[in-house]
Write a structure and sequence with these properties.
The chain is α+β, with helices and mostly antiparallel strands. It has one domain. It has one helix at 76-89; strands at 6-17, 21-30, 33-38, 41-49, 52-55, 61-66. The radius of gyration is 12 Å and the shape is globular.
């Protein structure tokens, strides 16, 4: 069975797009990894580097992210697994 993208309820990221455009985007998880909604698709959230988090797109940076049960200093893979456990309990 294919593993789809699942919304992390009430979790958002502040994203810097190319040419200095800032947007607020929803967070999703899939197969233990956190993704940020971007356009009609998703970019994978990576490790923190300096003041921002990298993504799978070289020109997209996440300046901050969070929501209920989501803490930015944690590893993005941990967030996805924790969200899945929370969903299973509720």
């Amino acid at each position: 069975m294919i593993d789809l993208f699942h919304l992390i309820e009430d979790a958002f990221a502040i994203v810097r797009k190319p040419k200095g455009v800032y947007v607020q985007a929803k967070l999703y998880h899939r197969a233990g990894v956190v993704y940020v909604a971007y356009g009609s698709g998703f970019v994978r959230l990576g490790q923190k580097f300096g003041e921002s988090w990298g993504t799978s797109h070289p020109d997209i940076k996440v300046l901050d992210y969070g929501g209920p049960g989501v803490e930015p200093q944690q590893d993005p893979a941990y967030l996805a697994s924790r969200t899945r456990r929370i969903r299973a309990v509720s």
